[in-house]
Write a structure and sequence with these properties.
The protein has 10 helices and 8 strands. It has helices spanning 29-46, 58-63, 66-74, 100-106, 111-130, 165-177, 184-202, 210-221, 225-233, 237-242; strands at 8-15, 18-25, 82-85, 89-93, 133-134, 143-145, 151-153, 160-161. The protein has a 4-stranded antiparallel beta sheet with strand order 1-2-4-3, with no helix packed on it.
Length: 246
C-alpha cells in the first residue's frame, strides 16, 4: 500500500501525562506533495475535467491548523484535538481505536459495526462536499475510530475548496480503492453503506467519474492484487444502482 503514510513518520508518545500522536514530516514530503499535485492535474486533464491541484507546501501545512479544524467542525466533520503544530511536526489527540482500514479488518464478523463505520465515513464525505470542499486523499486510513465506534478525520493537508466533479469523484475513489482488497462480500457491504451515508448528506449520488478513478488508483492501494481484481471484475453495486441495473 504505497500511498499509506508517505508524508510523515508517526509515533505514539506520552507528554504531560497524556497519550498523543506525534507526526514528523519525512524528508521527501514536499517532493511527494508537488508530485501528487502534478499527477492530479494531469489525470484531471485526461478525464477532460481540468481541476485545480490540492494544496502543497505551506498551504498544506496550514490545513492542519486550528482554523481549518474549526471550519471542518462547523461542516460536521470531526477531527482529533490539535495540541501543537510547527513547520515539521504535528501533535494531536491519540485516538485509541486505530485507523478505519484496520477496524474494518478487525470487525469483519460484526456486520452491524462494519455498516455503521462505513456509513459514517460516507456521511462525513457527503457533508464536506455539501459544504463545497474535498479531502483529495480520502483513504480509509485517514479516518480514526474512537472507543464508542464513532470516527474522526485526520490528515487534513489536501483539503481544499472546490465543487469540481473530478475532485469529488477522487474522494469517493480514494476511499473505495483503499478497501478494495477486502473480501468481496465485505467490500460490497462497505461500498453500499458508504454510498448510503454519502447520499444522506450530499443529497445526490456519487459523481460519475468515481468508478474509473477507483479502478486506476486501486493499484497504488491494494495489498492483495488478486482480491482487488475480483472486486473490480464483479462490478459495483453502487454503479449498477446509478445505472438502474438490477
Amino acid at each position: 500500500m504505497y500511498f499509506v503514510n508517505w508524508q510523515r513518520d508517526i509515533s505514539i508518545q506520552e507528554i504531560d501525562g497524556r497519550m498523543v500522536v506525534l507526526k514528523r514530516n519525512k524528508a521527501t514530503k514536499k517532493f511527494h506533495e508537488y508530485l501528487l499535485a502534478t499527477t492530479y492535474c494531469l489525470v484531471s486533464l485526461l478525464c477532460i475535467h481540468p481541476s485545480a491541484p490540492p494544496p502543497a507546501g505551506k498551504l498544506a501545512s496550514y490545513n492542519e491548523g486550528k482554523s481549518m479544524r474549526t471550519n471542518l467542525k462547523n461542516l460536521g466533520v470531526p477531527t482529533p484535538v490539535l495540541f501543537s503544530l510547527t513547520e515539521d511536526t504535528i501533535i494531536e489527540e491519540f485516538i485509541e481505536g486505530g485507523n478505519l482500514y484496520t477496524a474494518f479488518t478487525d470487525k469483519l464478523k460484526n456486520k452491524n459495526i462494519l455498516r455503521s463505520l462505513a456509513f459514517q465515513a460516507g456521511c462525513i464525505t457527503g457533508r464536506l462536499h455539501n459544504g463545497g470542499y474535498v479531502f483529495t486523499d480520502n483513504k480509509s486510513q485517514n479516518y480514526l475510530v474512537k472507543f464508542d465506534n464513532t470516527i474522526v478525520r485526520t490528515d487534513l493537508a489536501f483539503v481544499h475548496k472546490t465543487n469540481s466533479t473530478f475532485a469529488q469523484s477522487m474522494d469517493i475513489a480514494s476511499f473505495l480503492a483503499s478497501v478494495i482488497d477486502l473480501k468481496i462480500a465485505n467490500y460490497k457491504l462497505i461500498e453500499q453503506r458508504f454510498r448510503d451515508g454519502y447520499v444522506s448528506e450530499a443529497n445526490c449520488d456519487f459523481p460519475y467519474l468515481w468508478i474509473l478513478l477507483r479502478n486506476i488508483i486501486s493499484l497504488g492501494f491494494a495489498a492483495d492484487q488478486s482480491t482487488m481484481l475480483q472486486n473490480i471484475a464483479k462490478g459495483s453495486t453502487s454503479f449498477k444502482k446509478q445505472l438502474n441495473i438490477d
